[in-house]
Write a structure and sequence with these properties.
mainly beta; 7-stranded antiparallel beta sheet; 6-stranded antiparallel beta sheet; elongated
Length: 462
């Protein structure tokens, strides 16, 4: 009888503790990110057990040794990070814990979250984690980043502001140790990355949570990243890694291509019809007086020293820049100079244009016929867009046919807020969804395939 009464008393005590949220083993799981569906974009082609993000946010899972190997893809194609495997300045070290690690874009990405149960209300917990900073392959220039970490409705804590040099990976920091007090038995843990732009990526691995106190006070002051609201950088393409093919042997600071390598080049004014703007198929001159064309290749306006040229029918991917701190509902104007040309050694008239997109809308320049072995004069484009979110991607996509390589030229891009909507060159159209972009790009690539196969045998001018 006494034993039975004791058991009943223990049962009642345990039930009381359970009702108060005390004494449970907390349910945190998969802190090393090894329980997953493979490398890729979370919410698009992979997932993490125990963790959620708002799909398909700019968040990725990488495997050890593969972040610079061309195998991690997302909604916009390959998403490598700079490392020794693709010509970056530093080695990407192995993940500190497990076989996978999490990465979030520093501008416009969704927070990584996990609901933890079995916490002791009022108890203090220490959160430990490893973190690092990286840069998207094809981007150029130093970036700054930090992690913001929060448990439930408590105070947000921050890692120190870190600087990642151009084309680099910082290495892993193991000083992520933050204390939180549980205000309920069930709370949501979240990690959010913040960085200079959409080419800055923050990495995370080895997350653990245990009852106790962190050894030192965490930084509670929110870091400040020196950015100007809605600022576009390097609109004249002068900050670059030299003339050449973007994602192959050069890069333009602030800009990136959605696919690798993409057939987009940086040219120096006055040199495009001479030598030596090299890409994956060798020298890539444009027709001009210096290589036998009927007319001179004109220089871009405003004494621009460089311009970008994109093949509109082969390996067609947008050249883009991520903009942050936009005013939602605010109107912005994109100005740019453009022209059309043809790759030297090929014949035939081509029809070409540029399409410009910001977030959910696109506008296109008029389609222009460029005569065989020739180029057009430079024109000025001006479009207005309304920002649908605080972080948007500005993209330029060339289109051309037939596949006698039609090159669209771009220079002097600017992006500024305006108070009223002004007329643009084209009609506003919805931006295709990622699958539609892919189908359109595949179709354009097919048009250019036969011409590119004979790239080694140049046409003969009659």
């Amino acid at each position: 009888m006494g034993v039975c009464l004791m058991r009943i008393a223990l049962f009642v005590a345990a039930a009381a503790l359970a009702a108060a949220g005390i004494g449970h083993a907390q349910s945190f799981q998969n802190g090393d990110f090894s329980d997953n569906d493979g490398a890729g974009q979370i919410g698009y082609n992979t997932s993490l057990v125990g963790w959620t993000v708002a799909a398909p946010g700019a968040t990725y899972l990488y495997g050890t040794g593969t972040a610079d190997a061309g195998v991690t893809t997302g909604a916009n194609g390959p998403n490598d990070l700079w490392g020794e495997g693709n010509g970056g300045a530093t080695l990407i070290p192995d993940a500190p814990a497990g076989s996978g690690w999490f990465v979030a874009q520093g501008a416009g990405s969704s927070a990584l979250k996990q609901t933890i149960t079995g916490l002791t209300k009022g108890a203090t917990y220490v959160l430990n984690f490893n973190y690092a900073y990286a840069q998207k392959y094809g981007a150029f220039g130093p970036t700054q980043l930090y992690w913001a970490v929060k448990l439930g409705n408590g105070q947000t804590e921050y890692t120190p502001l870190g600087t990642n040099p151009s084309k680099s990976f910082t290495g892993w920091f193991n000083d992520g140790a933050i204390s939180f007090k549980a205000t309920a038995a069930t709370q949501v843990l979240s990690f959010a990355a913040f960085g200079t732009n959409g080419q800055a990526f923050a990495a995370l691995d080895g997350v653990t949570i245990t009852e106790g106190q962190a050894p030192g006070p965490p930084p509670t002051v929110k870091p400040v990243i020196p950015m100007t609201a809605g600022k576009l950088v390097n609109g004249n393409f002068a900050s670059n890694g030299g003339v050449g093919q973007i994602n192959f042997n050069t890069a333009a600071d602030g800009w990136y291509l959605s696919g690798a390598p993409g057939y987009t080049f940086i040219y120096a004014t006055g040199q495009a019809d001479i030598c030596c703007t090299n890409g994956q198929y060798g020298d890539n001159e444009l027709w001009g007086k210096n290589n036998g064309g009927p007319k001179a290749l004109s220089a871009p306006p405003r004494q621009a020293a460089y311009f970008v040229a994109q093949d509109g029918a082969f390996q067609v991917v947008p050249i883009s820049q991520d903009l942050t701190r936009l005013t939602v509902g605010g109107t912005y104007k994109v100005n740019f100079d453009y022209a059309f040309a043809q790759q030297a050694g090929f014949l035939g008239d081509t029809q070409q244009n540029w399409c410009v997109s910001l977030g959910g809308a696109a506008q296109c320049t008029p389609t222009v016929t460029n005569l065989s072995q020739s180029s057009t004069a430079w024109s000025h484009g001006s479009f207005t867009f309304v920002a649908g979110a605080a972080a948007e991607t500005l993209s330029f996509l060339a289109s051309g046919s037939p596949a006698d390589p039609p090159f669209a030229l771009l220079a002097n891009v600017s992006f500024n807020p305006v108070k009223s909507v002004a007329g643009g060159l084209g009609v506003v159209a919805a931006v295709p969804e990622p699958d539609a972009w892919a189908l359109m790009i595949v179709g354009l690539g097919a048009l250019g395939l036969s011409a590119r196969r004979r790239r080694g045998a140049r046409a003969v001018t009659v």
